Amino acid sequence: MEPQESTVQYNQWNNSQDEVSMSVSTLESSGCERVYNKLCTGKLGIAMKVVGGIVLFWVLFIIGYVTWYYIHKCK
């Protein structure tokens, strides 16, 4: 994590109106962080996790099937 710079400004116009404004500026995110934020958060992140889970299931299923086939193959 990179440090963030923040500033707080307080302006008092009169006794009945107060205004507080806060701004936070961050340094430029690295490429990996931007890709992670794009692909792993929000609705796209949920979709990527679902698709990844389905793909992982089928890969393990196929590996298990092929392994079972060669172990139990008649000689």
Automatic annotation (TrEMBL):
Residue ranges of the TM segments: 46-71
Alphabetized Pfam families for the sequence: DUF4731 (PF15875)
Entry-linked InterPro entries: SMIM1
Keywords per UniProt: Membrane, Transmembrane, Transmembrane helix
Protein name as it appears in the record: Small integral membrane protein 1-like
Lineage of origin: Eukaryota, Metazoa, Chordata, Craniata, Vertebrata
Gene name as annotated: LOC100618085
